[in-house]
Amino acid sequence: MNLYTLISATIVLAISLLSLPLLNHYWFNSTSPRLLTADLILKNGVIFTSDVSLPFADSMAVQNGRILRVGNYSALQELAGDGTKILNLDGKIVVPGFIDSHVHLIPGGLQMVRVELRGVNHKDEFVRRVKEAVRNSKKGSWVLGGGWNNDLWGGELPVASWIDDMTPHNPVWLSRMDGHMGLANSVALQLAQITNFSQDPNGGTIVKTSHGEPTGLLIDAAMKLILPWIPEVSVDERREALLRASNLALTRGVTTVVDFGRYFPGASVQLSWEDFSGFSQHFDRVYRVLYLIFSILFYGMEEIYI
Ligand SMILES: *[C@@H]1O[C@H](CO)[C@@H](O)[C@H](O)[C@H]1NC(C)=O
Ligand SMILES: *[C@@H]1O[C@H](CO)[C@@H](O)[C@H](O)[C@H]1NC(C)=O
């Protein structure tokens, strides 16, 4: 035990000493503004700085993606050089990047190319979109989608019979916008052997009619009954999905996320870890514009939900 502590301490000390020249170099540069030239200066904006001594400024100088200085335009002019691009914000507001502390980027990115039910505010429209998707699907293949929110059409929860007529040959799975429940059609229920006699799993509900027949709606851990029947998406598809979702996040000003992967209450965390393994390296190399930090935070999840 003591030996380990000693070795660790020695390593930390060695790293610190080795980093000292780097640190000096950094200070030297950052205290010598004459050496710095901004490649971008934003001016004439309302820039929120989070700094009480100057909460708002009108200009900001940037070099290589990092902020050099924030202040009034006059205070930044010395950072301008030949190649400096000056961007007039015309009074627009600038805030630091948003941090979204609960996202599911890969499932979200996959959903972006599936049946889109987000914003649907009428049962007929729900049914119409599924019908259209089925028309474009091969017989027997899964029709997947989601994003529905029953609150938008008065609260009634969807049931398999809404879509069974038009989906006699395709299993269907449509998750709710929060990912905590989903609707299966009767083909999917049959495939997953969910019947009148199926019992609720721990932490989940198979919603049933008053006569004891599954309606198609599966809540939380009950979703585990259907998901293994849906074919796995390939690594490439997952990468594309991650990129799609990341780009959407960036266009909305979200620059950092805490990602819960494909985790939902009652599911194993293992699959989510596997989904992300090897990704950060890939993205750093290929998509240098992405500064999303993929941190998967499962800490304490089990205690929260069970
Ligand atoms: C910035 O400019 C505004 C007016 O343009 C002025 O009121 C303010 O004092 C200036 N702030 C600093 C830090 O120079
Ligand atoms: C399930 O229950 C419903 C309603 O009671 C009934 O109509 C149906 O025949 C039952 N299905 C099976 C396979 O027992």
From TrEMBL:
Give GO MF terms, alphabetically.
Answer: hydrolase activity, acting on carbon-nitrogen (but not peptide) bonds
Q: Which residues form a coiled coil?
A: none
Give residue ranges for domain Amidohydrolase: 86-264
Record's keyword terms, sorted:
Membrane, Transmembrane, Transmembrane helix
User: Which Pfam families does the record cross-reference, listed alphabetically?
Assistant: Amidohydro_3 (PF07969)
Q: Which InterPro entries match?
A: Amidohydro_3 (IPR013108), Metal-dep_hydrolase_composite (IPR011059), Metal_Hydrolase (IPR032466)
Membrane-crossing residue ranges in chain numbering:
6-28
Q: Which PANTHER family match?
A: IMIDAZOLONEPROPIONASE, PROTEIN LONG AFTER FAR-RED 3
Q: What is this protein called?
A: Amidohydrolase 3 domain-containing protein
Which organism was this protein described from?
Dipteronia dyeriana
Upper lineage is:
Eukaryota, Viridiplantae, Streptophyta, Embryophyta, Tracheophyta
